[in-house]
Design brief:
The protein is an alpha+beta fold. It has one domain (about 1-175, about 205-230): 2-Layer Sandwich (Dihydrodipicolinate Reductase, domain 2). The chain is built from five helices and ten strands, in the order βαααββββββββααβ. Strands 1, 2, 3, 4, 5, 6, 7, 8, 9 and 10 form a ten-stranded mixed beta sheet that branches. Helix 3 packs across helix 5 (about 200-220). The two termini are about 25 Å apart. Belongs to the Gfo/Idh/MocA family. This is Putative oxidoreductase.
Amino acid sequence: MFQTQKDYFPKRYVEFRRKISIHTCLTYNPGAEFMKHSIRVQPELDGLGALGDVGWYCIRAILWAMDYELPKSVLAFPGAILNEAGVIISCGSSLQWEDGRSATFHCSFLTYITFDITALGTKGCLRLNDFTLPFDENLGFGTFHESSELDYGKLLEPGRWCPKANEHVVETEYSQDVWMVKEFASLVQKVKYLEVKPEKEWSVMSRKTQLVLDAVKDSIERGYKVIKIVS
């Protein structure tokens, strides 16, 4: 999800006017070997499980869409699934903002691979089905679809009651893994050779993501209570 911080992610293509709701879903079924031996499912190694793995990307995508404004509260959905060691292997949550905007996400190690985002606004919507790892690395973040109120001014095809969503393909020169290494190397070079102060952008985004993630886990552990976010 590295390139969502740069110009390659499709938010710039859509005239949302006012974002109302964001929904993200990231799931995959890694198999029995993973579920027994991966650090992701062992409380003494990485006790956050699916929430800390795939849930992180769901939360980061939501915060990106909300311009990294923290929600006022989170409420985990009842029915989170934990393994025998007490590690989360499937869960979901809602997030609420002061102005009425909302978001939901679902993350799991138990269902077939899904990498979806749906962003809804008063004037448009956006859908993307491979937001974390592109199904085709040659296309960067692959194909996404968007539609807006402006599309209703177009002539409709016979038999179609609304305009077809616009399809966009965002191509990049390198895979997201290469972009990540290049960005990291550039940051180190600036500090080491140009005496530039370290950028705070990445740490701020990571901290906000972790704050929300911890609140979701807290909500689950408290019996699905509303947890206030304190920045």
